[in-house]
Design a protein that fits this description.
Largest sheet: 6 strands, antiparallel
Structural class: alpha+beta
Distance between the termini: 106 Å
Number of strands: 39
CATH superfamily of the largest domain: Rhodopsin 7-helix transmembrane proteins
Shape: elongated
Number of domains: 4
CATH class of the largest domain: Mainly Alpha
CATH topology of the largest domain: Rhopdopsin 7-helix transmembrane proteins
């Protein structure tokens, strides 16, 4: 890029750096004149693509660089003047078009000058005038009578300059002349007058301190809130016994991030006016003026005089340091560890409760030989979820690696301070300082580790209602140990499951033999019981599959996640399907018996069998429909423990897996209702049917045999059919443990009383094993069918 042939405007700053506005390339470049080779240039402003954004220019012309190396650019085709503060790529519109504040209307500004008092003068080319700023804003200085060739008119001026007397010389382009206007300062007479306001204070050894440039040097400072009643330009002049350094911020000032919200800053340039800030202030915005010193830890008095269009209100924000407490603590190898910010593992930490006597603003900071991080929580701190309840944190940035927390604390609220380190496994001594309006104290605080929470590394799950076999056995099973090396409880459980499976298999085989006989299938009851014999075998089979799946996958910590995910999603719903189906088939048997009593000789056996066939087909789909939500909300929860944070040393992979159901409150209520429905529903149907059989049968007999009264018939019916009352009660009692376990909180510590939970869980699976005892043994018809079928099998067997 040929700089010499492409430049429109040139400017050399105090460091002998040449700035060049490149009209066609829409940017400003700079070249150091001190370099032996000036072939390389650096972009000072603009992206090279013309546009209206804050980091773009369109046909830039005149440029000016002040003593702070801030760059002012006449952005011609954007009709504005842009200020690019030193080192910034985004510009600030100080004159012309602006999305939220219009200062003055410009049309292709082409020349720009900033005077010693930071007032801006602009050659407004297509408006044929020179304009300047003062405390009241911008006003026209020359060429204020429109385009023309008269002595007081201009025609497309594109540049201008001042001499030492304040006279202005204008390159009047289209009039082909140089115009001189004498002593332009007289045109601004009385424009710099305004209301005055003074503020006096001092920086002392008790003043607040901060790292002004985020470097190693500490500076005393005082922050002052500034509120103007009327928008306009205001001038701050500071003098006193210190070498002042002033900064103005928009809305708030953060000493830990002194660049954030910064609008302007200045420091002493000469002895007459030690510090001078000229800035446009909006009446709708609160500003913060920060007074500090040019050199570190300088103290002394200072006074601020401000002039502007209207009254200015000052309010001191920072308060003197008033140390109320110095607390010493030490992080050791025995201190607890956690994942700091869910990113850095094995960070030792200490938790302290803050006791506040008086509501107010407090400052907490640390001193130690290592980088310290500080966090303040409201009410409680959970190391597994470090973002929960977090109010404020600081990582030591811009404070020499030590945390500093500035926060408003209430005396009615519990606050928790967490002190930790930047890097893992760091130990050492710390001192915590607290400054505030009144006495404050710290005491050790122990976070509550809820067993309802599982997970690690900020990957946690809060267990809800319902204990599963995973929950009962998880803490008892030891990874990477064979079954013989497991606890006695696990080995006994394994034996019991095998015994239950064998008993269930015998029950199902005997029941199948009975109900497969044609005499047992004369009505629908036999078909229901034949199907129940099959589903009870499937239920007890799924139970043993469930048990061994949980045991083997917990023992083998390297089991494939796809296998675990498939088992989690399918085994439990299928197990429930067979259990519920078996209960409802028993209820169907009770209903048909009641219908038989009601119909008497009019009972239609063919219709009964037809209804039974349709019911047996439809019932599984209806039950599965009530369980479909489990497939949607049942998932595998996988979490990795940090190195050295594993729950036991036998799991080198540090991987832990749990099958969970993540229900919303409404789905949880629905799931509970489904559980009650499938457990209590069959029981009620069985009980009501049994009562109807007894009392209905007694009524029919009393009508036929009048020699006995109704009460005697009821007693006779009860003696004859008492198993119909006893059997549903027995089945309900045996199923109640499953209901209780399903409603217990998932965070119950089962390891403390393992068999208190594991025993009822096993008992709840005994009903499918009792079909033969409940339905076959008490019935002469079914026992006869069983004996006939059994004898037939014996004759066929060699």
């Amino acid at each position: 890029m040929n700089v010499n042939s492409s430049c429109w405007g040139l400017f050399v700053d105090i460091n002998d750096t040449l700035y060049c506005s490149m009209l066609d390339h829409h940017q400003v470049v700079k070249i150091s004149l001190n370099d032996s080779v000036m072939s390389s240039n650096h972009v000072a402003a603009g992206t090279g693509i013309g546009g209206p954004d804050s980091n773009q220019l369109r046909s830039p012309r005149g440029i000016f660089v002040d003593v702070n190396l801030d760059l002012y650019v006449a952005d011609c085709d954007n009709d504005r003047v842009q200020l690019f503060q030193s080192g910034e790529s985004n510009g600030i519109t100080v004159a012309g078009s602006h999305p939220w504040r219009k200062t003055i209307t410009l049309s292709c500004p082409s020349g720009i000058i900033l005077d010693a008092e930071k007032y801006l003068f602009i050659a407004d080319q297509n408006n044929h005038r020179i304009v300047g700023s003062n405390l009241d804003g911008f006003r026209c200085l020359v060429g204020c009578n429109g385009m023309g060739s008269q002595s007081n008119q201009l025609n497309q001026p594109f540049s201008f300059s001042f001499d030492h007397s304040g006279n202005i010389f204008v390159a009047d382009h289209s009039n082909h002349r140089i115009q001189k206007f004498k002593y332009v300062r007289r045109l601004c007479v009385n424009t710099f007058s305004g209301l005055q306001k003074s503020y006096s204070s001092s920086l002392t050894n008790n003043s607040q301190m901060y790292y002004r440039d985020c470097k190693k040097e500490n500076f005393y400072y005082e922050s002052i809130q500034v509120k103007v009643i009327k928008s306009g330009y205001y001038t701050f002049r500071v003098s006193g016994a210190i070498d002042p350094y002033g900064s103005i911020y928009n809305n708030k000032f953060n000493p830990l991030d002194p660049v954030d919200n910064l609008l302007n800053q200045d420091y002493a340039h000469n002895s007459d006016i030690q510090l001078k800030l000229d800035i446009y202030l909006d009446a709708d915005i609160i500003y913060v003026l920060v007074m500090t010193t040019f050199d570190s830890k300088e103290v002394g008095e200072f006074s601020i005089n401000i002039s502007g269009r209207n009254e200015v209100n000052f309010e001191r924000l920072s308060t003197p340091v008033n140390i109320q407490l110095i607390y010493s603590l030490k992080l050791t190898d025995n201190s607890p560890t956690y994942y700091r910010d869910c990113q850095v593992p094995q960070c030792h930490y200490e938790t302290l409760q803050i006791h506040v006597n008086t509501t107010g603003s407090y400052i907490l900071w640390s001193k130690s030989n290592t980088d310290a991080y500080g966090y303040i929580y409201k009410n409680d701190f959970n190391p597994l979820k470090p973002s929960e309840n977090l109010l404020l944190s600081h990582d030591g940035e811009c404070n020499d690696g030590q945390f500093k927390l500035i926060i408003d604390l209430e005396n009615t609220t519990r606050y928790i301070l967490v002190v930790t380190t930047r890097n893992p496994k760091i130990t050492g001594s710390f001192s915590v300082f607290i400054s505030g309006p009144n006495n404050v104290s710290l005491s050790p605080f122990s976070p509550k580790q809820s067993s309802c929470v599982i997970g690690d590394q900020c990957n946690v799950y809060m267990k809800g209602i319902g204990l599963t076999l995973d929950d009962i056995l998880r803490d008892e099973l030891q990874p990477n140990k064979v079954l013989n090396n497991q606890s006695f409880s696990i080995k006994l459980s394994a034996v019991l499951t095998i015994v239950m499976f064998v008993a269930g298999l015998i029950n199902s085989v005997l029941s199948f033999i009975t109900f497969h006989h044609k005499d047992a299938q004369q009505v629908g009851c036999g078909m229901y019981l034949l199907t129940s014999a099959i589903t009870s075998l499937l239920a007890i089979s799924m139970f043993i599959i469930k048990f061994w799946f949980v045991v083997l996958t917990h023992i083998n910590a390297s089991t494939s996640l796809s296998v675990l995910r498939g088992g989690c999603a399918s085994i439990e719903p299928i197990l429930k399907l067979f259990l519920y189906l078996d209960s409802w088939l028993n209820a169907c048997v009770a209903v048909e018996r009641a219908v038989l009593i009601f119909k008497g000789v009019n009972f239609d056996k063919k219709k009964s069998k037809s209804i039974a066939r349709r019911t047996i087909v439809i019932l599984p789909f209806c039950i599965f429909g009530t369980l479909i939500h489990e497939l949607a909300f049942r998932r595998l929860f996988v979490y990795e423990a940090a190195p050295g944070m594993s729950k036991n040393n036998e799991n080198p992979n540090n991987r832990y897996v749990s099958c969970i159901t993540h229900y919303s409150p409404s789905i949880q209520n629905y799931n509970t209702a489904v559980l009650f429905f499938h457990l209590v529903g069959p029981f009620i149907i069985n009980l009501l049917s049994a009562l109807f059989i007894i009392f209905g049968g007694a009524r029919q007999r009393s009508n036929a045999r009048t020699n006995q009264n109704f009460k005697e018939h009821v007693q006779e019916q009860f003696r004859e059919h008492k198993q119909l009352i006893i059997s549903p009660i027995v089945l309900l009692v045996l199923s109640i443990p499953r209901l209780i376990i399903s409603l217990l909180p998932g965070c119950v510590k089962t390891s403390e009383n393992l068999w208190l939970y594991l025993g009822p869980y096993f008992i709840s699976f005994t009903p499918p094993m009792l079909i033969f005892l409940i339905f076959v043994c008490p019935s002469e018809l079914y026992m006869k069918a069983f004996k006939q079928s059994f004898n037939r099998i014996r004759r066929r067997t060699p």
